[in-house]
Structure formats: C-alpha cells, structure tokens
Amino acid sequence: xxxxxxxxLVLLCIEMGVILVCLxxxxxxxxxxxxxxxxSLIPVLLHPAVRGxxxxxxxxxxxxxxxxxxxxxxxxxAPHP
Length: 81
What we know:
Layout: H1 2-22, H2 27-30, H3 33-37, H4 42-45, H5 48-70
Helix pairs in contact: 1-5
C-alpha cells in the first residue's frame, strides 16, 4: 500500500508541475474568470515575472517528484542510518 501511495504522490507532483509550468503561458491564463471579474488583477497576473515565478514553482514541483523517484524507500525492518 505504501508503494501505491508513493507512486500516486509522484504522479500528482509531476502532473501539478506540468500544469504550473504550462498554464501561465497559455490562453486560459489570459482569459479567465478572475481577470474579467477583478480587472485590477490584470497588471499583476499578466506580468512576466509573476508568470515566471509560477512556472518556477512548477519546475520545483517536478524536481521534487524526480527526487522522490530517485530516493530509495526504507525497508520496513531496516534501521535508519
């Protein structure tokens, strides 16, 4: 069960990372409910630095997922080093 949970967590991290990398640069980001409802957010959310920061969080999320894949899970009875 622990291996299944670990695999699902890795997949979730990768999926969220890809979404965070791609979404700020797509047309969905430019035309969404919040920008039409709150026009004062337009200069903030469409600024390239904010888009880059959100994409950076996505890259960090993918990096964490890759680190989780590379890390070997501890055996149930093995002592901690």
